[in-house]
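Researcher: Next entry in the queue.
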Amino acid sequence: MKWSWWPSRGALALDGYFTVVGPALAFPDTGDIVVDLTDQLTAFHRLLLPDQPLTEDFARTLIDNLIRGLR
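Model: Structure for this entry, 71 residues:
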């Protein structure tokens, strides 16, 4: 692969990043924002900190705060 096919080396790095993590962070739109955000947060946490548990209390509090900010 030749990096000059991308407009910059940063674009190449970003493309590579999304190629690797995209499948791990993909999630369906269930129509329930709380379920969708919880699934996305859990997937992202597993990607970054696979050996540390994500407590349900922490996830619920974070999602509640996100939802309040959207309203």
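Model: Helices lie at 9-25, 33-48, 56-70.
Researcher: Noted, moving on.
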